[in-house]
Amino acid sequence: MTTRGAAVVIVGGGVTGLSAGWWLARDGVDVLVLEKGIVGWEASGRNGGGATHVYSPFGLEEQRLWPQMDALLGYPTEHQSFRIGVALSEAQLALARRWAEIGEARGFRWELLDRRQLKELVPIVGDNAIGGTYLHFGGHANPQRTVQAYAWALADLGGRILQHTTVTGLVQRGGRVSAVETTRGTLGADAVVVAAGPQTGLFADMLGVTLPLAPARVEMIATEPIPLMRVGGVAGNGLYGRQTLRGNLVYGGGPHEWINVPDMATPEHRNTPLVRNLARRLAELFPGAAHVRLIRAWSGLVENTPDGLPVVDRLVNPDNVVIATMSSVGFGLSPASGRAISELVQHGRCSFADLGALALSRFADTPDDWRERAGWVATHAEVELAAGGDD
Amino acid sequence: MRAVDRRSLTGKGPRADRHVPLIVIGAGAAGVAAAVEAARSGVETLLIDEHPVDNDMMAMDVPLCFGQRMQPAIRNRALMLERVVETNPALASAHEAGVDVQLGTYVWGAFVGGPTVQELPSPMLGLADERRSWLVSYDRLIVAAGARDVLLGFAGWERAGTLGAGGAAALVTRYRALSARRLVVVGSGALGLHTAALALDHGIDVAGVVEVESRVRGDEATAKALAERGVPFFTGHTIREARGRVGEIESVVLAALDGDGRPIAGRDREIACDAVCLAVGLVPSVELLHLVGARLRFERALGGWVPQVDAWMRTSVPTVFAAGDCAGFHDAMLAAPEIAREQGRLAGLGAAVSLHALDRHEADRRRGHASPATPASADVFAYWQAWLRSLIEASGWDVNICQCEEVTRRELVQTRPPRYLGWDSPQMKARDLTTLLRDGPLNQDQIKRLTRAGMGPCQSRRCREQVGLLLAHAAETSIEQIPLPTFRPPVRPLPLNVLWPADEPNAMREDWVSWFGIPTQFSPHWEPGMVLDEPTAHARLIVSDE
C-alpha cells in the first residue's frame, strides 16, 4: 500500500472525529481520518441536529462557536439560532422551564410563553398546548450537511480522509501506539484519536482499557415540507427535532432498543412500527400539521456510557491516545468537542473547559455486568440473522 | 437479577392487529395466481392491492406517474372500486378460491427482525387506507408489487400531462379515467408500441411515437399496424421541450438527431398534444423486498435491481417470495401475462410447501412445466442512457431532474447545496462530483443528502432512475457500480393522522421520553449529583382521531 500514516490518525469519520481532525488541521497538524464507510454515515448524520447543550462542560463553547461555523468551515451547516419548547402538560412545562433555567444559570436569556404567544410563533400548535419557553440561546443545524462540511473543510486545510477503510488493530510500542492496522495496510501515527461511536469500546479493549458502552437503536421521522415558521427549532411532547430550512418536520424520540454490535460491521438501519407512535406524538405536538404526510423514517445506532456523559480523555498508558465517545449526544457539541480533542492531542489539556467529569477513570469500578444490572441489554443475547423462516 | 429499562422498547414491541399465514401483495397477474394456488392448497391467504389509489396520492405520481391526467371521477371512491374490480376479472377466481381480497389498501411498511431489531414478535406489514393504518403479521409473504415508470426529464416536464406508461395504462384500463385526448409517446420499444395501441383502442389520439434510435425498437409488424392506423413515427428524434400555458402541456417540440445523436439545427418540429407519455421502460418495484432484507442484484436486462430467487421464486429471506414484474421486468412480459402468472403460481406453490400445507411431490405435479421466466437479453440501461444523452443535448443542463426539490441536472453534478440556502463560497464552488469521486465510489444516497435530489414527497419515484443514470453518465462509471439507493418506510407518503395508531399500550405512553431517560445525562456539570428527569406522565394529550 502507498497510503502513508500521519502525525495524528483519527479512527472514525463521524462528527466528533471529523471536527477533531478539522481543528487539528487548522493548527497545521498532519491529520488522517479513517472511516469504515462514508463520512458521517452513522449517528452523526442521523440525529435531530440540536445544538442546545448548555449543561455540558462544552456548552458555552458550543454556543460561542455555532453561529460562526458556516464562515469557519466555508460550507453551509444550516445552523439556526434559538429554540422554542412546547408543553402539553404541567409536567412538560416544568421540564421546559428547567432546561431554560439551566441556560439562565450560564448567563443566557429566556422567556415564558403563554398559549397565545406560542400560537403566534408556532401556528401549528393547538389548544392542547398550555404554554412554552422561548430560549434566546441554543439552536440546531443540518447534521448531514454539517458532517460533509467538516470533511471538506478538513481536506481544504490539507488533512486527509480515507473512506471505506476499516481499522482492525492498534500497534503498540514502548508505551505508545505507533501505528494502526487497517484494511488498507498499516499506517504509522505519532498520536491516535479513537472516536468510533459504538465501536469505541472495542478499541479501548485492544489497549487494555475498559470503556463501558451500550449501543442502542433509535428512530426518526420526516414529513413533507410545510410553510416555514419564524423559528424552526420547536420541540416538545417527548420529541426532539426541528423544521428544516426546506420546511420538513424532522423529529425523533420515544423508546430505544438496546442492541449488541458484534464486531466492526454496522448492521442495517431498520425501522420498526414505532414510526406510527412517533407520528402520533408529532401530530399531538402540532395538531395543525396532523394532515401532513410522512415521507421518510430512518434509524441510527448510538452508544451510551453508564452515566450518559461523554468520555473525552487522553490515556496515561499508552500516552498518545485520546478516547472520545459523546454518549449519544455528539452532534451539537461537535464544534467544541473537536476543539477539546485537538488540544488534548497537542497539549495534553483543554484550555476552555474542565473535562474532569468526562474522565475515563470514573468507570474504574464499573462491574462487568453493568448492562444487565441497568437493564441495558438486547432482548436476545445471541443475535439472530435476518428474518429467518423455520424451513 | 436482570433489570428492565422502562424507557427502552423492551416489552413494548408492536402487536399486530391480525395474523395471516400468507400475505400476497399486488393483485396483478402474478399476485392473483399466487394467492389462488396457495388458497387452493388450504393456506389462509390475504391478497392486498392498493388500487384504487386516492386522488391525492395520484396527484403526487404515487405509485405510478399519472401526470395530473386523471378525470374528476377519480374522486368517486365507490365508482373507482367498482371499476378496478370489473376490469380485473381474475379477482373473481381469487374470491372463489377463498382468498381474502383487500383492495384500496396501501402497504407502507415491511418490518422484520434482525441484529438491531429484536423487539418484534413476528415479521409484519404496515397497511393503511385513506383513514387509518394497521399492522398484519405473516408467516409467509409473496411480493408481486409490479413495476414503476422510468421517467426522464425534458424542458417543461413539470407541466401537467407528463405521464408514465404505467400510470397511463392504469388510468386507461383499470380506472377508465384518463383525461388526456392526444398523446405523444416517448419510446418505440415494446412498451411504447403497447402504450400507443392501448391509447388508440380507447379512443385516444396518438400524435406521434418518438424514438431516439434510428429505427423503431419494437416489433416491426406491430409498428406497421400502428402506422396504418395513422400513428406517425419520429425515429432519430428526441424531445426538446414541452410547451403550454398555465402549467398544462399543449405541445411538444421534437429535435431531429444526427448520426452522433446531436440535434440538427433548424429541424425542430412542434406537435400539438395534451400529454407526453414516457414509455422508455419500467423498473421493478423492489422497495418492500429491500425493506425485508431480500438480497437484490443488478440485472441490466431485467430493469435493474431485482431479487435473487430460486426455482420457486423464493428470495434470500426464506419467508419471502417475489413474483411478476417486481422480480424482474422485460419486454416480453407485456404481451405475455402468462410469464408473470407462472411465476405467481410457483410462488404460491412454494409458499404452500414451505408452510407444510402442500406436499413437495404434489407441488411438483401442479407446477408442471412452469419455470421462472427466461430473461430477455436487451440492455435497457444502454437504451435509457441513449435517451438521457439526447435529452441533455436537446434541453441542456438546466432542466429539473428532481421536481419535488427543484434540483437541476447541473446542480446535481455540481453537488450544489439547495438554492433556498442561497449559499455561495469559493470552497463550495470548487467542489463537484469529480472532487467527491476522489473520496470514494459514487453513492446516490450521499448525493441526495447534499443536493436533496430525491428527498421530496414523491419519494424519488420521478427521479431515482434518472439521477442514477445521470451520475453514471457524469462520472463515466457503469450504473451497476452505484449501490442501490435505500428505500425507507413509509414507502407510500401518508398523513400523520392516518399512520398514527388509534390506541397505544399504556407503557408506550407512560414511559415515553425524548431521549434515553438517563437521569444524569443532561445534568448541569457544575451541580454534582443533580439529575434532570423527564416527566413520563402526559396529562393533556389530544386523544385519538376522528
What does this protein structure show overall?
The complex is a heterodimer of chains A (391) and B (546). In chain A, 63% of the residues are buried. The longest helix of chain A is centred in the first third of the chain and has 16 residues, at 90-105. Chain A has 391 residues and is an alpha/beta fold. In chain A, helix 1 packs parallel to helix 6 and helix 1 (15-26) packs across helix 9. The termini of chain A are far apart. In chain A, strands 1, 2, 6, 7, 8, 9, 16 and 17 form an 8-stranded mixed β-sheet that branches. Chain A has helices at residues 15-26, 59-65, 69-73, 90-105, 115-121, 143-156, 200-206, 274-285, 334-347, 370-374; strands at residues 6-11, 31-34, 80-87, 110-113, 131-140, 160-162, 167-173, 176-182, 185-194, 214-225, 234-236, 239-243, 248-253, 257-258, 293-304, 311-314, 321-325. The model of chain A is unreliable at 382-391 (pLDDT under 50). In chain B, a hairpin with a 7-residue loop joins strand 12 and strand 13 (251-256). Chain B has 546 residues and is of the alpha/beta class. Chain B starts with 17 loop residues before the first strand and ends in a 36-residue tail after the last helix. In chain B, the strands form 6 sheets. In chain B, strands 1, 2, 3, 4, 5, 6 and 19 form a 7-stranded mixed β-sheet that branches. Chain B is built from 19 helices and 22 strands. Helix content of chain B is 29%, strand content 18%. The interface between A and B is large, with 114 and 96 residues. Strand 15 of chain A pairs antiparallel with strand 22 of chain B.
